[in-house]
Amino acid sequence: MYKTLAFDVDGTLLNTEMALFLALQKTIRDIQGREVTYDDVSFFFGLAGSVTMKRLGVENVDDAVNQWVNNTALFHDHVTIYDGVRNAMDTLLKNQTPMGVITSRLIAEMEPDFTDFDLNKYFKYRVCAEHTQKHKPNSEPMLKFLELAGVKPQDTIYVADTIYDMQCAHSAGVDFAYVTWGVKSPDKAIIEQAKYTFDKPEQLITLVQ
């Protein structure tokens, strides 16, 4: 049984895929004057905004990330919470298991979603993009979480949905639970390397039983 649980946000708790894509598409259109398709930028899921902008050849990365954050608010109505997540979080909260999030998003970018979906009450610890110099798939975000929670790697597990998340967890010596309820086509390579694979949020309770 784990003493703490760490969660990713996008693709794990919230379906933000379309909102983030539309905001990124608008940002690149405004900055570079070109249209990007979903296939052009699908790599960005799970990466820090600064990494995404560098890969897209943006010169002023910090300004571009801030613009992306601001544009995300324009598409907030596309964000939804996955079915079953709230019930699972309620059960885990009643179990008194300390929980936290590790996300590549900035605090200002994540906070509106957490407020609107009333998620703040579930999470004691937060590691956002500005809390570390290096980002997923590097181990630094996970190591920061372990520091905040005051636990050893074997005492926690990272619940998330991308290979970047798994690499972040494993490089810090932490177990990884692969969730597929937000994944169009589950990655067999991740399934083979993950400690657990869950296709329904209610399965999360098994992590603390």
What keywords describe this structure?
Rossmann fold, alpha/beta, 209 residues, two-stranded antiparallel sheet
Low-confidence stretches: none
Taken together, the total number of domains comes to 2
Query: Which structural class do you get from the secondary structure elements?
Result: alpha/beta
The spatial strand order of the largest sheet comes to 5-4-1-6-7-8
Helix-residue proportion:
40-55%
Q: What's the gyration radius in Å?
A: 16 Å
DSSP summary: helix tally: 9
N-to-C span: 6 Å
For the secondary structure, the number of strands is: 8
Oligomer: single chain
Strand content: 5-15%
Full CATH superfamily name of the largest domain: HAD superfamily/HAD-like
The major sheet is characterized as: 6 strands, parallel
Principal-axis shape equals globular
Commentary on this structure:
The protein is 40% helix and 13% strand. The chain has 209 residues and is an alpha/beta fold. The protein has 2 domains: 4-15 and 80-208, HAD superfamily/HAD-like (Rossmann fold, 3-Layer(aba) Sandwich), CATH 3.40.50.1000; 17-78. The longest helix is centred in the first third of the chain and has 16 residues, at 17-32. The protein starts with a strand and ends in an 11-residue tail after the last strand. The mean pLDDT is 94.
